[in-house]
Write a structure and sequence with these properties.
Layout (H helix, E strand, L loop, with lengths): L6 E9 L2 E8 L3 H30 L4 E2 L1 H15 L7 H11 L2 E7 L4 E7 L4 H6 L6 E2 L1 H7 L9 E5 L16 H8 L9 E3 L4 E5 L9 E6 L2 E6 L1 H10 L7 H11 L5 H11 L5 H11 L5 H4 L11 E2 L7 E4 L4 E4 L5
Parallel strand pairs: 7-9, 12-14
Antiparallel strand pairs: 1-2, 3-5, 4-5, 6-7, 8-9, 10-11, 13-14
């Protein structure tokens, strides 16, 4: 049935972002239901708002993915009496407009990730939610373990690769291979997202089955991070992700003997590196001045056959005979 002609809007009242129209209608029934349908969606959300906030406040986690929000909506849409055709996108929009939810989008060269933070969700938890099974490493782990006085502007997240067999070409190490590799620049991750006042760098490290990865309480929350021994190994292997060789040396000094040399040796055995990073680690430990020669003898059980390097493409090279390793002459020992 069609009633005909025009729709006159006499007044619009705004209450808590809800538009209520007082109208005189002379039109068709279809137009009336479009208007009333939108009105019902808004009022149902407003009616359920307290329950929605209560539920989000009760959740242990306060960082959500799109699928997390979708699952919450699906599980509660009937209880909240929201329209059955309320989409996840629409629900998120209503949450952002009317509650304490805010969104963050991380744009990396190879992928993007949108996350939704409830109230004052922490940055650490948010970053660890970018990729499942990730953990803080390198400079980030140094900072959290109080091994540096610097405040890094880049957060390092490690996500281990799937296990891969070692190439037969790398089974036998020669001095020529080492020289060729370390006289070239280090390959660095470009999987970096730049935010307003910080950067996030995702590393895809070799699979070590999360060796030395622990959960600790930091800023009143549990986070995944490499323990101190694993951190010292990682930064010796990749000093570029730890502020450089001088910062790595400072980290070894700041440990002040509160590590297990047996654990470091056990980790190195399990990590099974091609290159003799035990020589780099021994050099750092020795120059830190914290350990005696007797303590460091544990790392000298096997003869050092390769002249190694603390890093790639070093300048002003000097050589340490004790650990058979080249180091840059501009570092302060």
């Amino acid at each position: 049935m069609v009633i005909s002609s025009l729709v006159y809007i006499l007044m619009r009242i705004t209450i808590d972002k809800l538009f209520i129209y007082v109208i005189i209608i002379q039109g068709d029934i279809y137009s009336i239901w479009i208007l009333l349908g939108e009105f019902v969606k808004q009022t149902r959300f407003q009616i359920a708002k307290k329950d929605i906030i209560k539920l989000f406040d009760s959740l242990e986690n306060n960082v959500f993915s799109y699928s997390d929000i979708s699952e919450i909506l699906s599980n509660n849409i009937d209880f909240w009496r929201l329209p059955q055709n309320t989409s996840t996108k629409k629900f998120i929009s209503l949450l952002e407009e009317n509650t304490f939810l805010k969104s963050l989008k991380f744009q990396f060269p190879s992928f993007s990730k949108s996350l939704y933070i409830w109230r004052d969700g922490s940055l650490n938890k948010t970053l660890l939610s970018i990729k499942p099974n990730s953990y803080f490493s390198h400079y980030s782990a140094m900072f959290i373990h109080n091994l540096t006085d610097q405040i890094p502007k880049t957060y390092y997240l490690n996500i281990e690769q799937s296990p891969k067999p070692r190439s037969p070409n790398n089974a036998i190490l020669s001095q020529e291979k080492v020289d060729m590799a370390f006289l070239r620049p280090q390959r660095l991750s470009n999987n970096i997202c730049k935010m307003n006042n910080y950067r996030v760098c995702i590393l895809n490290g070799k699979n070590h089955n999360n060796l030395g990865v622990i959960s600790i309480n930091f800023d009143d929350e549990s986070i995944s991070i490499t323990d101190i021994e694993r951190t010292l190994i990682d930064i010796a292997v990749r000093p570029e992700y730890a502020g450089g060789i001088s910062e790595v040396l400072n980290a070894y000094y700041n440990v002040k003997g509160k590590i297990s040399l047996n654990r470091i040796q056990a980790y190195l055995k399990q990590m099974d590196f091609v290159y003799p990073y035990i020589q780099s680690i021994g050099f750092y430990l020795s120059k830190s001045g914290v350990y005696s020669n007797q303590q460091l003898s544990l790392l000298k059980k096997n003869p050092f056959k390769i002249k190694f390097y603390l890093g790639h493409k070093l300048s002003n090279l000097k050589f340490d005979k004790e650990w058979n390793v080249y180091y840059p002459g501009n570092i302060d020992l």
